[in-house]
Amino acid sequence: MTDRKSAGGRGVPAIGAPGRAAGELPAGHPPATPTVADHELSEFSGPGLEIRGASIRGLMHRYRGGPRQDAFSVVYDEASDTTLVIVCDGVGSLPRSHEAAAFVTDRLPAHFWAARNWAAAVKSVNAELHELVARRRAELGPAEWDANAMATTVVAVAISPGHQGRRVEIVRSDDSTVWALSREGGWTDVSATTDGDATVHTGSVRALPTDSPRLHHAETTLTDGALFVMTDGVDVPLRGAAEVRETLATWWTSPPAIFDFGAQVGFARKTHLDDRTVVGVWATGEDHA
User: Fold this and answer.
1) Which of 193, 200, 232 is nearest to 216 (CA)?
2) Which of 17, 173, 8 is nearest to 89 (CA)?
3) Helix axes 232-240, 242-252, angle to 10 degrees
4) To bridge 160 with a disulfide, which of 82, 116, 131, 255 should be the other Cys (CB 3.0-4.6 Å)?
5) Nearest by Cα to 271 from 35, 60, 82, 63
6) Where would I find the H helices in the chain?
C-alpha cells in the first residue's frame, strides 16, 4: 500500500519536498461544459503479463482550470497474442489538445492491426487527425480556432511473443518515453533512437498532426521485470533524480493495487506540475499463449 504518512495535501505520496502547490492548491470549480475526467485508471491481466495504467491531471492544469491533456489506451489481439499500449501527451499550449490525445489513443490501434507496422499506423492516424483539424478550422474560422487548436505527441508499444521472452516494438514522436525496470530495481531508458522507415525522419519534436511526422523506433525484449510507457510528467523527474528512481523502483518492482498505482503516478514533488501518465507492464513468468 502507498505510505499515506508521506502524502502531500492531495492524498498522494511525496517524493522529496512536495512543494506548496501539492498541499494548498484546491480542486477548483467544475468546468462549464463536460470534459475528460481528472484521473483515469485501468488494470489488465493475461498470459504472461500484468498491466496497470494511470493518467493524472497535473497541478498546472488544476491551477489554470484546464483539463488533463494526457491519454492512454491498452488493447489486445488474441489471435496474435499481441498487446498494444498507446500513450499521448497533448500539447499544453493548445487549448483542445486533450481531444487530439484521445483521438490518437482511440484510432491508432486499428491502424496498427491493419498494417502491423508502427510507421504506417502513425502516418494513417496523422492523416485522420489532419482531416479532423481541417474540418474544425473550417467550421470555426480563424478567430475561434485559436481557442480550439489541438495537437499531441505519441509513444506506442506492441508486445508480442518472441523467441526469448516478449518482443517489444516501440515508436514515439518525442517527449514521452519507455523505461525498463529490472527485478533488481535498475532503470534503463529503452526509448527509440534509430530511423525506422525511409519516409519517417528522426529529429526534433513533431506533434501530430504534422506534414512530416518525425518518429523514433526501437526494439527490446521483456523477459522479466517490467516496462513503463510514460509521458514526460514522470519521465523528467525519473531521469533527473536518483531519489525518484529509487522510490519508484521500490513501489513498482511488482504490480501494485490499481488505486495505489494511481496515487503513486500522481506523486507530489516540488516544481513538477505537469500531467502524469504511466502504463506499467509486468512480466509474470507464465508461458505465453
Assistant:
1) 193
2) 173
3) 120
4) 82
5) 60
6) 20-24, 59-64, 97-115, 118-145, 232-240, 242-252, 258-265
**How far is residue 75's CA from residue 57's CA, in Å, rounded to a whole number?**
23
- Cα–Cα nearest to 207, from 121, 132, 122: 122
CA 169 – CA 118 distance, rounded (Å): 8
DSSP classification of residue 200? B
- Quick: pLDDT tens for 149-183: 999 999 999 999 988 889 999 999 978 999 999 99
pLDDT tens digits, 66-88: 999 999 999 999 999 999 999 99
Assessment of whether the complete model's pTM goes beyond 0.85: yes
Burial of 60 (0-12, 13-18, 19+ CB in 10 A): middle
From CA 96, how far away is CA 84, in angstroms rounded?
25
**Grid cell of 28 as nine digits:** 477548483
Determine the residue type at 207: A
CA nearest neighbour of 149 among 228, 96, 104: 96
Distance from C-alpha of 281 to C-alpha of 165, rounded to nearest angstrom:
13
User: Could you tell me which CATH number the domain at 4-26+37-283 has?
Assistant: 3.60.40.10
What are the cell numbers at 89? 501527451
Domain boundaries of the chain, sorted by first residue: 4-26+37-283
Cell of 186: 535498475
List the helix and strand counts (H, then E) for the chain.
Answer: 7, 11
